[in-house]
C-alpha cells in the first residue's frame, strides 16, 4: 500500500469506516439498492490499519475479502448501519462514512413474495426517508473533538454542491467525487476534492483508491492533534 508521510501516525487511534451500499428490502427476494462496490471503503480500512489504527469496518453488502487486521461488522439496511455505527463510534477518534446509504426505503415490507395479479397493474411502491446517519453522527458526537468525515458523489457544479452538503451535514471533512460517464462507481481509481469545514480544500488527482484513502487519513491525522 502507498503510505502517507506519517508512517504509524494513527497508532493508538480507533477509526470507524462504513463501506458498500445499503439494501432496502421490499419482500423476501427483492430490494432497492445501489451500485457502490465498497472498494473505496475497503481502501480506507486497509490504509488506516497500515498506519497503526484499530479499525472497525461497517460493511454493507460488499463481497470483498476482509482486509487484514480489521474488525468487520456486516450490515444490510440503512437502519442496521445506523445501529452498528452508533455502537462503533462510542470510543472512535474518527468515523468515515464512505457507504452509499439509501435515501429511501419501502414504507412496507411484504413478508411474502409480491406476486403478479392477472390483468392488473402492480401497486405503486411507497417510500419513506431513511435517517441521515452522517448528519446524526455529526450532531451527536460521542465526545468533543471526534472527527466525522463524509463522502459525496456529485455532478454539475461539483464544488458548490460539495460546500453546501458539507455545511448541511455538519461534518468536519467531505470527500467530494465527480461522478458520471463511468467515473468512480465500481472502478479502482478515484479523483476527489477533500473539503474541510474550516475552509481547507485538498485536491487529490485521479489515481488508485488507496492514494485517496491515504490523503483522507492525512487530513484526519492532522486534525486529531
Ligand atoms: N449519508 C448518510 N445517511 C443517509 C444518506 C447519506 O449517512 N441517509 C452519508 C453518506 O454515507 C455520505 C454522505 O452522507 O457520506 C453524503 O451522501 P449523499 O447521498 O451525497 O448525501 P445526501 O444528503 O443523501 O444528498 P443527495 O440528495 O445529493 O443524495
Ligand atoms: Ca443520497
Number of E strands:
12
The CA-CA distance between the termini, in Å, is 24 Å
Mean pLDDT across every amino acid position: 94
Give helix and strand order, one letter per element, not per position.
EEEHEEHEEEHEHEEEH
Main sheet attributes: strand count, strand direction, barrel closure? 8 strands, mixed
The helix content, as a percent range, equals 25-40%
Uncertain segments are: none
State the strand order across the main sheet. Answer: 5-4-1-6-9-10-11-12
- The percent range for strand residues is 25-35%
Please give the count of helices: 5
Bound molecules: cytidine-5'-triphosphate, calcium ion
Q: What is the structural class? A: alpha/beta
- What does the radius of gyration come to? 18 Å
Morphology = globular
Catalytic activity: (R)-4'-phosphopantothenate + L-cysteine + CTP = N-[(R)-4-phosphopantothenoyl]-L-cysteine + CMP + diphosphate + H(+); N-[(R)-4-phosphopantothenoyl]-L-cysteine + H(+) = (R)-4'-phosphopantetheine + CO2
Pathway: Cofactor biosynthesis; coenzyme A biosynthesis; CoA from (R)-pantothenate: step 2/5; Cofactor biosynthesis; coenzyme A biosynthesis; CoA from (R)-pantothenate: step 3/5
Binding site for CTP: 103, 113, 131-134, 151, 165, 169
Function: Catalyzes two steps in the biosynthesis of coenzyme A. In the first step cysteine is conjugated to 4'-phosphopantothenate to form 4-phosphopantothenoylcysteine, in the latter compound is decarboxylated to form 4'-phosphopantotheine.
